[in-house]
Amino acid sequence: MCPHPPLLFRELGGRLHVAADLRHACNEVLTDALATGPQSVVVVGAADWARTWTGTPAVRRFGTTEPRNADLELPLSLGVGRRLLDEVGWTGDTQLTSLTWDASDQDVDALAERLQGEDTVVLLLGDGSTRRGDKAPGYLDERAFPFDAATAKALESGDAEALRNLDVQLADELMVLGRTAFRVLGALGTPSSARLAYDDDPFGVAYHVALWHYA
Q: What is the CATH number of the domain that holds 36?
């Protein structure tokens, strides 16, 4: 589980490497996951459409005025996931799939069932609340702090049920862009081990990086 802020595209940071600690945590958990020698990696994130994708990370929309080709651009969540895999040197089979921001329980469970299998790493992309301060993208909402703390606790302890049954309405009000990804992770079931590698809000947005293994 990794977040997907645009600043994980290194070229958007200029000389100031503002997301260095976050990028290091993402690279660390991906390296550990890929050390198992998977046959494939499935990247899952939220987007405006539920579909499979091919294409390239859409960096232009965040930092340049160059012409765009929307048909060849991945949504932010999948674009960041694709970039993170490139950074750790993964060149094997990669599948890119998205669910909508407020996917139904049936769609979440169906995707989780399809993802369960041997020799597969699932990279889920999603941010926590964007309302953790006066300068946060969604301004301040005090409810964000207990919500994100509960999410971090579930990621650290491997509490799949808590993530699967996440309060979707509250998550929407708190502008939790990872609300679908967290639910998919929960629907994958209880892991044999869980580790929370990063839990911080450097820009008023909660970012969680976690690694779950399944026996």
A: 3.40.830.10
Look at residue 74 and tell me if it is in a domain: yes
DSSP for 4-67? --GGGSGGGSTT--TTHHHHHHHHHHHHHHHTT--SEEEEEEEESS-EEE-SEE--HHHH----
Number of domains within the chain: 1
Q: Tens digits of per-residue pLDDT, 26-64? A: 999 999 999 989 999 999 999 999 999 987 665 555 445
- Rounded Cα–Cα distance for residues 143 and 132 (Å): 9
Q: What is the pTM of this model?
A: 0.91
The CA distance from 33 to 195, in Å, is 12
- Determine the structural domain holding residue 174 and report its residue range: 6-213
Q: Does any domain span residue 119? A: yes
